[in-house]
Design a protein that fits this description.
The chain is of the alpha+beta class. The protein has a single domain, classed as Alpha-Beta Plaits (2-Layer Sandwich), CATH 3.30.70. It has 3 helices and 4 strands, in the order βαββαβα. Strands 2-3-1-4 form a 4-stranded antiparallel β-sheet. A hairpin with a 2-residue loop joins β2 and β3. The longest helix is centred in the last third of the chain and has 15 residues. The protein is globular and about 40 Å long.
Length: about 90
């Protein structure tokens, strides 16, 4: 099956459990993490990841809603963009 990539960014005050909550939600939706970069800068957690949603049981709106729940519960900013939208927005 061909990959269908999405780009997820997460920003917020650093706290325990951010990676666990997001990765668990992705696992439950059968979404594979293809690449991830994360760091803490002056107390803020920053993470970007490419995920493969090709085999997900959720559509994009449902994925965004799941991430939105985590965003609200953990006071984060989470963006989910399909790879094509991300490429179009960042074309130089």
């Amino acid at each position: 099956m061909a990959k269908e990539l999405c780009f997820i960014t997460v920003i917020g005050k650093d706290k325990k459990g951010i990676v666990a909550r997001i990765s668990n939600a992705l696992f439950e939706a059968n979404i594979n993490i293809e690449d991830v970069d994360m760091k803490v800068m002056e107390g803020y957690f920053v993470m970007s990841m490419f995920v493969d949603v090709a085999e997900s049981k959720l559509n994009m709106d449902e994925i965004k809603e799941r991430m939105g729940r985590i965003e609200r519960e953990m006071n984060l900013k989470i963006q989910v963009q399909h790879e094509e939208i991300f490429k179009t927005m960042h074309r130089v």
